Amino acid sequence: LQAYERRFPTCPLIPMFVASDTVNEYKSEDEAIHVIERRCKLDIDAPRLLKKIAGVDYVYFVQKNSLNRRERTLHIEAYNETFSNRVIINEHCSYTVHPDNEDWTCFEQSASLDIKSFFGFESTVEKIAMKQYTSNIKKGKEIIEYYLKQLEEEGITFVPRWTPPVAYKSESSTSQPRRPVSPAINIPESATKEGLNNKEILNSSSSPLEPTAGTPDDKLDADYIKRYLGDLTPMQESCLIRLRKWLQETHKGKIPKDEHILRFLRARDFNIDKAREILCQSLTWRKQHQVDYILDTWNPPQVLQDYYAGGWHHHDKDGRPLYVLRLGQMDTKGLVRALGEEALLRYVLSINEEGLRRCEENTKVFGRPISSWTCLVDLEGLNMRHLWRPGVKALLRIIEVVEANYPETLGRLLILRAPRVFPVLWTLVSPFIDDNTRKKFLIYAGNDYQGPGGLLDYIDKEIIPDFLGGECMCEVPEGGLVPKSLYRTAEELENEDIKLWTETIYQSASVFKGAPHEVLIQIVDASSVITWDFDVCKGDVVFNIFHSKRAPQPPKKDSLGAHSITSPGGNNVQLIDKVWQLGRDYSMVESPLICREGESVQGSHVTRWPGFYILQWKFHSMPACATTNLPRVDDVLASLQVSSHKCKVMYYTEVIGSEDFRGSMTSLESSHSGFSQLSAATTSSSQSHSSSMISR
User: Fold this and answer.
1) Cα(243)–Cα(212) distance, rounded to whole angstroms?
2) Distances in Å between the alpha carbon of 453 and those of 71, 443, 448?
3) Which of 169, 332, 408, 411 is exposed most, by the fewest CB atoms within 10 A?
4) Is residue 447 part of a domain?
């Protein structure tokens, strides 16, 4: 055992074993029993692409060691905490004394692997797991012998056997043990969690659960539980009472209702310490942001009321409030540009607060506890436009806030008419969603929701929305394209104390006739990937990419502004010196791309050489008609819209390594369109240059 314990908190002989933390620890008063539970951080040897898709760099396992010095046994249990709803790994090891020779140690080990689903990489995960397990078995004996030798070198060759203390007689060995020595552990909740996993801390003769079981004074009224809380075991009831009592004694301010406290306990498998931590953080957050008063004091902007395609719609068969979201018909980019991320987040918070209120109402109406709601998400119309980077980032932040402050409020999520692009979006957001929440997702492609096991299993026929083939008129807004006239600049949003993603990642630039705007990107490693995302806010521009082996001179900020111009609408920087010649001093690596006013362009370029790359936005002059020297009517009308030969763009660029590219948002085939209709699929046509991806 002493040799084994030296493996922690980390072991240099096991490179994948990065670190470990003690979660729970228990020692009996006579020191015969010692149980320690650790959370281990592992760096699995898996392909980088698989880690990117899974959204994690490390995986966590929980390992519990149960030492019984009286019986001279050591039992080790381990199971995965990461992706436990997709992959179930259980490992059992035991060290015992040989029945015929007390100087011999018997070692037994077994493990099981059950892969339910893993983003389509089930066979790959199985191979990785089997390879890792086989490697561990081969190295296990080598590691234990290494530490035994280390003990011998330190002069430790004999460890006395455990003997009962004088104060303890043999009959007292089965008495109730005292509470754990570690102040962080709380026996009932951890034991309840272990019970859910069909595991026991100790055998029944020395169970630490009995001294802390609920007494008659701790019990809630049975009718109250049945009416408002649902089925609770005595242990769960005790956890609720103790956490509520602790809040009353220590927390200043509004104490949440039992139903809300219960959500946090359920989210942490009734581990009081963990539930108390996240509940206190949430209560502080609610106070800071005045969330308790949001329904009474905040009115959603008209843009949200007109273009946010979501709303409440009756209830499901279980009596849960039903929220309908037509995500495929929603202009997420337009909403972020018009309102900012903070306004969208506040609106989502108001939806959740309304959901809590409706749960209380339905509890009264149906006469049984209803603590969660059902969400129906229609994805018809979802396309690459919805994968706009700042929009996805805003979505991830909203998920993070909701997961932290509204646990166990989602009873069921029905995702209908999922298109081909949906797996990409799911890969991006799923790592941020709690495992318990993911289990509640039901996904239907095409018209599968109309068949057996579909919508009728969860929602009464009379209230199925009309746009899904039902007869019930749904008052949820249809969404649609947010007019660009409602877009606001980052400065305007900042004046209203609303932060926008574009404040930090987007920049504004002005383009003049004869004065293009240029951005310099230095590439050290060939095969890096330059990505871009820009909107043409005013006028038409030509987008170019150039390469040079030598760095251009930094822009001069002289009085004439020949190289750098600052205007209220954005900066203008020119890097390519007028004496430089195309083909001698620099070269063009992409074909010029004409971008019209109002278009959004996203794309990427895989660099072939190190050096300096220049992204250029140049004023686009209207060409004359091919058959005559007279300009076309359309060109004349378009030219009248461009005042003073000035264009404006908002852009964002990023450089990522080629090994990271396939797992990155920016590696998606990008869209370049006027976004004529939300439900239309984006059609693509690649540029002839094989190293770039730009689609229209």
Assistant:
1) 14
2) 53, 11, 9
3) 169
4) yes
Task: Say if CB 251 and CB 283 are below 8 A apart.
Answer: yes
- Residues spanned by the domain of 70: 1-154
pLDDT digits (tens, 9 = 90+) for 307-356: 999 999 999 999 999 999 998 898 888 888 888 888 888 899 999 999 99
Task: Please compute, for residue 109, the number of CA atoms within 13 A of its CA located in the half-sphere on the CB side.
Answer: 10
Same domain (yes/no): 272, 301: no
Q: Interior CA angle at 640 toward 638 and 644, to 5°? A: 120
pLDDT at 212 over 60: no
Same structural domain for residues 92 and 107?
A: yes
- Nearest of 311, 429, 303 to residue 378 by alpha carbon: 311
The whole-number average pLDDT for the span 276-300 is 84
* Bridge partner list, 648: 510, 538
Q: Over the stretch 546-587, which tens digit does the pLDDT of each residue have?
A: 999 989 887 654 433 444 454 444 688 999 988 899 989 999
- Give the Cα separation of 64 and 565 in Å (integer): 65
Strand partners, 535: 600, 650
Give domain status of residue 321, yes or no. yes
Residue 34, judged by CB atoms within 10 A of its CB (0-12, 13-18, 19+), counts as middle
pLDDT at 692: 38
Report helix angle 389-405 to 422-429, nearest 10. Answer: 50
Q: Structure tokens of 309?
A: 């395609």
Cβ–Cβ < 8 Å for 39, 81:
yes
Measured CA to CA, the distance from residue 73 to residue 95 in angstroms comes to 6
Distance of CA 516 to the CA centre of its chain: 39
Q: Is 678 within the bounds of a domain? A: no
SS3 content of the chain, % helix, strand, coil (to 5): 35, 25, 40
C-alpha separations of 174 from 31, 170, 312, 463, 532 in Å: 13, 8, 58, 61, 69
Q: Give whole-number Cα distances, 131 to 22, 135, 235, in Å.
A: 27, 6, 41
Give yes or no: residues 340 and 392 share one domain.
Answer: yes
Nearest to 324 by CA among 188, 186, 458, 136: 458
Same domain, 72 and 128: yes
Say if residue 671 is exposed, middle or buried (CB neighbours under 10 Å; 0-12, 13-18, 19+).
buried
pLDDT in tens, 485-506: 888 776 666 665 444 333 345 6
Six token digits for residue 517: 């705007």
Phi-psi region of 469 (alpha: psi -120 to 50; beta: other; left: phi over 0): left
The vertex-682 CA angle with 679 and 683, nearest 5°, equals 135
Task: Indicate the pairing of strand 321-325 with strand 373-378.
Answer: parallel
- The pLDDT assigned to 659 comes to 60
Residues 296 and 285 in one domain: no
